[in-house]
Amino acid sequence: MSTPTGFMEYRRQIPADRDPMERLQDWEEFHKHMNEEDLRTQGARCMDCGTPYCHTGIEMTGGTSGCPVNNLIPEWNSLVFRGLWQEALERLHKTNNFPEFTGRVCPAPCEGSCTVGLIGQPVTIKTIEEAIIERGFAEGWVKPEPPAMRTGKRVAVVGSGPAGLACAAQLNKAGHSVIVYERADRIGGLLTYGIPTMKLDKGIVERRVQLLEAEGITFVTNTEIGTDIPAAKLMADYDAVVLCGGATKPREFAIEGSGLKGIHYAMDYLNGTIKSYLDTGLEDNQYITAADKDVIVIGGGDTGTDCVATALRHGCRSITQFGTHAQAPLERDPVANPWPQFPNVYTLDYAHEEAKALYGQDPREFSIMTTKFVGDEEGRVKELHTVQIERIVDDAGRKIYKPIPGTERVFPAQLVLIAIGFDGPEQTLVDRLGLETDRRSNVKAAYGKYATNVERVFAAGDMRRGQSLVVWAINEGREAAREVDLYLMGSTLLP
Ligand SMILES: Cc1cc2nc3c(=O)[nH]c(=O)nc-3n(C[C@H](O)[C@H](O)[C@H](O)COP(=O)(O)OP(=O)(O)OC[C@H]3O[C@@H](n4cnc5c(N)ncnc54)[C@H](O)[C@@H]3O)c2cc1C
Ligand code: SF4
């Protein structure tokens, strides 16, 4: 235990982010770091409770409660409090291959289910996680650890997002020869192309990829399985195949005027900017720009929020983000949303803070639905027509959105970004391999088993569970590796 009374003696503290007006001038991470003394004090707030929900990641009423990779949070909190950073790092790496990713981008469901949070503010878990791994890199404690022996088995991993990377790391640890195929020009999946640089610097991804390479994993980019390499050849060349191709087929938004110029899917917008930034520092202009435009983002989730932050940095004239959901309450509803569920409360994400600093208000419009787009004589979008909505239960018992008469509005817009979610993985590879899919068109494979209907083919991450979180992708990649090892060797020592 850290200290039995720490949670009563010390207040929760999180590192201040960079000033919004300053960070809007660049594309660098908005986080700042905490000094060692403050980190140790925050570690002291962990009460090492009898049933630490923080490290029992489970799905609860559609959200995540606790840590999906089962990080040994009370143990490393105590070690950090005592200044035993290297020991804390060892404990952290037991459960999480990439704490430098989760320590930056995880929404921290662990904190939502922290026991101290029942009577006050939860322990600062995510910040401590990031500090442990960054200390490890700074001290030179994180080194390549190639396996002592090779098994002679060859495994292909398709897709280099967090699921594919975690799976490859674990399979390589078990001594198998692992090749990761990626169709993009850079490794990382949505860690690289998807999550903006402000949330996750791409040098952080590259640093881990180099370590994995040094441990013996081979990465092949610009190669799409099912197209550049036929699926049948993959099956012939490898003892097992793990599909970690993600689930980024955009959900269509087919309403009047949706074919107008100036209406784009969020991922095309985000990834164009990331690629141009990484290739040439945005000098090549090979991206959709929001400069001097009134921008509407349709979709109230994380992807939409990342579009807001990107548009602000492009120099948009105005920015508005639409969500069909109602504004969340300021405090957790103890009946509808009790602890240890993930708290559904009103917060300003980084992009909303930035928009507020620049324009004086939260850019979000809640309980709103777009009814049509209207274009100019050149076929370019010029405005959106909307109506306010309320959620009701219809005669058949279904929850539906009902327009509220008299609430119609018109918003000017020269750029519209569609961020209303994803409809599962792209189907080419799925069809070529003859894989069964579930009712949401994800690859069918039981959680915990990961085996598909095709012998020797496994599936993990978003491709199996649908668009989710980095930490779930790491969890699935690790667990799938254990199942593959068991399949290949008849027994496994992987966790
Ligand atoms: C814009 C955005 C922001 C997000 N922000 C967060 C966040 O802040 N925190 C968080 O926890 N989660 C976030 N998420 C969700 C998170 O990024 C995903 O849940 C996670 O990356 C899924 O990991 P994955 O490895 O399953 O798939 P992905 O990361 O999608 O990686 C799949 C990879 O497979 C490759 N691939 C697909 N098919 C083939 C093929 N046939 N051949 C070769 N390669 C192929 C793709 O190119 C891709 O690189 C965000 C998602 C988006 C879209
Ligand atoms: S990975 Fe996410 S849920 Fe797990 S300890 Fe880190 S921040 Fe919390």
TrEMBL record:
SUPFAM superfamilies per the UniProt record, alphabetical: alpha-helical ferredoxin, Nucleotide-binding domain
Domain of life: Bacteria
Domain (Dihydroprymidine dehydrogenase) ranges: 24-138
Residue span, FAD/NAD(P)-binding domain: 154-477
Pathway: Amino-acid biosynthesis
Assigned keywords, A-Z: Amino-acid biosynthesis, Glutamate biosynthesis, Oxidoreductase
A Pfam family recorded for this sequence: Fer4_20
UniProt protein name: Glutamate synthase subunit beta
Organism expressing this protein natively: Paenibacillus apiarius
